[in-house]
Amino acid sequence: MLDVHDLCGGYGQAPVLHNVKMRLGRGETVALLGPNGAGKSTLLAALTATLPVRSGRAEMSGHDLIGMPSHRIVAEGLALIPEGRHVFAPMTVEDNLLLGSIRLQGRSAAAVRSRFEYVYDLFPRLAERRLQRTGTLSGGEQQMVAIGRALMSAPRLLLLDEPFMGLAPMVVQQILQALQVLRSTGMTMLLVEQKLDIALKHSDRAYVLVKGRIVCTDRSIQLAARTDLSQLYLGSG
Ligand SMILES: Nc1ncnc2c1ncn2[C@@H]1O[C@H](COP(=O)(O)OP(=O)(O)OP(=O)(O)O)[C@@H](O)[C@H]1O
After folding, report:
1. Dist. CA 175–CA 170, nearest whole Å
2. CB under 8 Å to 71, separation ≥6 — which residues?
3. How many domains does the chain divide into?
4. From ligand 1's centre to the CA of 110, what distance in Å?
5. Rounded to 5 degrees, what are φ and ψ at 209?
6. Which residue, of 107, 110, 188, 219, is most buried by count of CB atoms within 10 Å of its CB?
7. Tell me, what's the pLDDT at 84?
């Protein structure tokens, strides 16, 4: 589904990503782990046209995403759920979701309606609150809006940037259940996370990024059993 080759990029003169290589197979949930400042969000920015890439490629179903404008990246079937959610607080839940349906523009109203139904089935809480201003929702509900908005574009690949950040354990479980449903229906997901336990428990494979370099990759079950993982994670392995 996604094949990242030797990606290098950064901000101004400062390099952040160094020859990043990563593969996601269709239907896989892959975790991208790494400490604060490792470059995880920067990698997502490189894949979604918000960071100029110095070199390398990122092919999705054979098309290079690097250099593509963001609307074409969405049309390829990639959707980002950004860190911090970035929902539009004064707008209703329904209007926030509608913004995500841009890829469906030009299709029938029925196609958009069926996406709303899909999102509301996954998150019944959003259906109950569809006319509420998003800024008045709880943090967990806002995260549901952010995920729902991404799903409105009928993506094939979801990039989730720390979707559990700042959420209470019960809400984390609700979000995990929704991700489990997506996983069981064959969605491909890249789950960016700092917390090893949650990410390794809910992914098939994982990459560890430290100081902009992939230092380790394996099946999540194997990584979870490694005793040197924390050391690696801190960049001292
Ligand atoms: N807009 C920016 N301009 C300059 N440097 C930046 C910018 N955004 C991030 N950086 C730097 O790039 C490096 C990687 O940051 P990034 O946010 O990608 O890390 P991260 O792994 O996502 O961290 P976290 O888990 O804390 O979100 C850091 O050194 C950071 O200071």
Report:
1. 9
2. 102
3. 1
4. 41
5. -110, 125
6. 188
7. 82
Share above pLDDT 70 across residues of the chain, in percent, rounded to a whole number: 97
Which stretches does DSSP call E strand in 61-187?
A: 63-64, 78-81, 157-161
Q: Are 224 and 200 in contact (CB under 8 A)?
A: yes
Helix (H, G, I), strand (E, B) or coil at 7: strand
Q: Is ligand 1 within 6 A of the CB of residue 82?
A: no
Pocket test for ligand 1, best of 8, 41, 192 (most atoms within 8 A of CB): 41
CATH code, domain with 227: 3.40.50.300
Q: Render pLDDT for 195-237 as a digit per residue (tens, 0 to 9).
A: 888 999 999 999 999 999 999 999 999 999 988 877 777 655 4
Would you say residue 99 lies in a domain?
Answer: no
Surface-to-core class of residue 34, CB atoms within 10 Å of its CB (0-12 exposed, 13-18 middle, 19+ buried): buried
User: Would 147 be classed as within a structural domain?
Assistant: no
Question: Could you tell me if the ipTM is greater than 0.90?
Answer: yes
- Render 54-98 in DSSP notation, one character per residue: EEEEEEETTEE-TT--HHHHHHHTEEEE-TT----TTSBHHHHHH
Per the domain annotation, does 92 fall within a domain?
no
Does residue 117 lie within any of the structural domains? no
Per-residue pLDDT tens digits for 155-196: 999 999 999 998 999 999 999 999 999 999 999 999 999 888
pLDDT the model gives residue 234: 65
Which atom of ligand 1 is found nearest the CA of 209? 21
Residue 51 CA to residue 211 CA, distance in Å, equals 17
Domain that includes residue 46, residue range: 1-77+157-164+188-237
Residue among 9, 24, 53, 83 nearest 65 (CA): 53
